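Lab intake sheet, docking and co-folding queue.

SAMPLE TYPE: protein with bound small molecule
LIGAND NAME: pyridoxal-5'-phosphate
LIGAND FORMAT: SMILES
REQUESTED OUTPUT: full 3D complex as structure tokens
PRIORITY: normal
SUBMITTED BY: R.K., bench team

The fields below were copied directly from the construct record.
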Amino acid sequence: MEEVRRAMLSDWLTQGPKVPEFEGAVLDFCWARYAVAVNSGTSALHVACLALGLGSGDSLWTSPNTFVASANCALYCGAQVDFVDIDPITYNMSVEQLEFKLKKALKSPKIVVPVHFAGQPCDMEAIRWLADKYGFFVVEDACHALGAVYKDSPTGSCFYSDVTIFSFHPVKIITTGEGGMATTNQPEISRKMQLFRSHGITRQEQEMERQDEGAWFYEQQMLGYNYRMTDIQAAIGVSQVKRLNEFVEKRRAIAERYSEMLDGLPLQLPCEAPGRSSAWHLYVIRLDLKQIAKTRKAIFDAMRRLGVGVNVHYIPVHLQPFYQKLGFRKGAFPEAESYYEEALSLPIYPDLTLEQQSTVVRALKETLL
Ligand SMILES: *Cc1c(COP(=O)(O)O)cnc(C)c1O
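RESULT FIELD (auto-filled):
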């Protein structure tokens, strides 16, 4: 709140000096060379796709187990969307399914968007290998995964990808109210994302196509948007990044406690694959409904009645009416669909107390047993 007060009293309210300060703070954390702050994770996906040249005649593949924004960004660019089914243990895009689909495809996708579901990084080394073999760009949707680590490199380093995008929506690991960011190691991609963030306009003399006519001069070089982050939001972000390690450690402690307390119940606990450290955005249990002999809806409703804010992540994107109208059918991605029938997200956030967590576990045992 003190940071916001100072931003409000400054000469800048919209994008000003706080935005590059916030970008720098995120870069220090995740080791990439460039960062472009925008007004949402969705905008970050859009500018990333635009900067990589996604357009009509191209396709983008992502996971069906995600928020709709991961797929919508392709359609904003006039490209086609397709999905790759998930792995039944990590609930991330299955690398085997990706390779199988690439082998069969007449044309490789232009971009693949792996989503680090629940905060757990995808198998990036394998995805990078396939990207080099089949010639596609990789945009990591890391909206859940700021603070995660994959084989010693922090998520956002773009060690295995072209661009990584983050969201700072209030439910995410850190927040700016609304906000997002794209990181990359490629100067040209960064420059393009900056242009798309603000109408395709540059005021930098060295970037201009024509002679600079004076101090007022600017050039619109492509069709961009108004996706700017405000200095007020960036000020919140600067303050939030300072607490990022603390937030992730608290989430991890909560996740570990859940896994101890829920051991032995008729459900599949979330797992961390080898070489991966999750940011624990979500704690998802997969109910063994045959053993429990209750529907997921009955369990969900009973938990809500007991005052526990359970949720479900995610309704497979291809089952949304909009995507059904585009021609996707039920049964097309069976792992994502059967996972969806059995998934339940338990409350996880840094301020969740031990006592509250015990209440959640008691309510779940009462409901299941
Ligand atoms: C939240 C989220 C988004 C969208 O981010 P916004 O900041 O809400 O636009 C995209 N992808 C995933 C996986 C998300 O969880």
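REVIEWER NOTE: Residues 40-42, 66-67, 69-70, 115, 141, 143-144, 167, 169, 180 surround pyridoxal-5'-phosphate (CB under 6 Å).
SIGN-OFF: pending second check by T.M.
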